[in-house]
């Protein structure tokens, strides 16, 4: 089993989404034993350049190679674990930069006369979501979880599990409760 583990929080060891994504990967390791291959993309440490017209037009060989590598890595993964902090109602821009590089027509989706079709195949996605306030499901100002789900759905992935810690900036009790609730979900994987 191939796991693609992505982190995007800028908070290093203090990051909750990083803590949760690592715990999800650990849980999967315990469940599936030695038969596991993990690739870790730390988007805060190794930032992917924003999509530009030069990159889009294939005029930068180095970036074309990186884009191809990222697409293949995504296609090859059986499981994707994404640590997603909420920043300004959305995602870290580094995670958006990754999305812009893997959302490529003819590779991860295609348009047909019936509409778009995802090409990323069978995969499971775990989203380790962390946010300072409380939004629940489907909040009109949540451009973090809903956006990520839409992107994965668009590439054909529908098996998405969100492990959420929210209200983490609303005092120590709320933070502890949010973490415990997320961790009990992880234990149930
Ligand atoms: C730059 C920045 C922007 C943030 N924007 C929001 C926000 O819009 N809504 C919210 O509820 N929390 C917001 N927060 C709080 C984070 O979502 C919260 O601290 C979360 O734990 C971040 O994930 P991390 O711990 O993995 O870094 C923001 C934090 C930072 C640093």
Automatic annotation (TrEMBL):
<feature type="binding site">
    <location>
        <position position="9"/>
    </location>
    <ligand>
        <name>FMN</name>
    </ligand>
</feature>
<dbReference type="InterPro" id="IPR050104">
    <property type="entry name" value="FMN-dep_NADH:Q_OxRdtase_AzoR1"/>
</dbReference>
<feature type="binding site">
    <location>
        <begin position="15"/>
        <end position="17"/>
    </location>
    <ligand>
        <name>FMN</name>
    </ligand>
</feature>
<keyword id="KW-0288">FMN</keyword>
<dbReference type="InterPro" id="IPR023048">
    <property type="entry name" value="NADH:quinone_OxRdtase_FMN_depd"/>
</dbReference>
<dbReference type="GO" id="GO:0010181">
    <property type="term" value="F:FMN binding"/>
</dbReference>
<comment type="subunit">
    <text>Homodimer.</text>
</comment>
<dbReference type="InterPro" id="IPR003680">
    <property type="entry name" value="Flavodoxin_fold"/>
</dbReference>
<dbReference type="GO" id="GO:0009055">
    <property type="term" value="F:electron transfer activity"/>
</dbReference>
<feature type="binding site">
    <location>
        <begin position="130"/>
        <end position="133"/>
    </location>
    <ligand>
        <name>FMN</name>
    </ligand>
</feature>
<comment type="function">
    <text>Also exhibits azoreductase activity. Catalyzes the reductive cleavage of the azo bond in aromatic azo compounds to the corresponding amines.</text>
</comment>
<comment type="similarity">
    <text>Belongs to the azoreductase type 1 family.</text>
</comment>
<keyword id="KW-0520">NAD</keyword>
<keyword id="KW-0560">Oxidoreductase</keyword>
<dbReference type="GO" id="GO:0016655">
    <property type="term" value="F:oxidoreductase activity, acting on NAD(P)H, quinone or similar compound as acceptor"/>
</dbReference>
<keyword id="KW-0285">Flavoprotein</keyword>
<dbReference type="InterPro" id="IPR029039">
    <property type="entry name" value="Flavoprotein-like_sf"/>
</dbReference>
<dbReference type="GO" id="GO:0016652">
    <property type="term" value="F:oxidoreductase activity, acting on NAD(P)H as acceptor"/>
</dbReference>
<protein>
    <recommendedName>
        <fullName>FMN dependent NADH:quinone oxidoreductase</fullName>
        <ecNumber>1.6.5.-</ecNumber>
        <ecNumber>1.7.1.17</ecNumber>
    </recommendedName>
</protein>
<feature type="binding site">
    <location>
        <begin position="86"/>
        <end position="89"/>
    </location>
    <ligand>
        <name>FMN</name>
    </ligand>
</feature>
<feature type="domain" description="Flavodoxin-like fold">
    <location>
        <begin position="1"/>
        <end position="188"/>
    </location>
</feature>
<comment type="function">
    <text>Quinone reductase that provides resistance to thiol-specific stress caused by electrophilic quinones.</text>
</comment>
<dbReference type="Pfam" id="PF02525">
    <property type="entry name" value="Flavodoxin_2"/>
</dbReference>
């Amino acid at each position: 089993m191939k796991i693609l583990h992505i982190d995007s929080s800028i908070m290093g060891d203090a990051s909750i989404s990083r803590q949760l994504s690592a715990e999800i990967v650990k849980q999967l390791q315990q469940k599936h034993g030695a038969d596991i291959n993990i690739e870790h993309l730390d988007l805060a440490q190794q930032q992917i350049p924003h999509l530009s017209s030069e990159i889009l037009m294939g005029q930068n060989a180095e970036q074309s190679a990186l884009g191809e590598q990222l697409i293949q890595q995504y296609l090859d993964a059986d499981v994707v674990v994404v640590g997603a902090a909420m920043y300004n109602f959305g995602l870290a821009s580094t995670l958006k930069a990754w999305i812009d590089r893997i959302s490529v027509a003819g590779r991860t989706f295609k348009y047909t006369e019936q509409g778009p079709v995802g090409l990323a195949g069978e995969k499971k996605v775990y989203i380790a979501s962390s946010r300072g306030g409380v939004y629940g499901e489907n909040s009109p100002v949540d451009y973090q979880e809903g956006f990520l789900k839409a992107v994965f759905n668009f590439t054909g992935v529908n098996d998405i599990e969100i492990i959420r810690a929210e209200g983490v900036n609303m005092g120590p009790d709320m933070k502890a409760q949010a973490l415990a609730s997320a961790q009990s979900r992880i234990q149930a994987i």
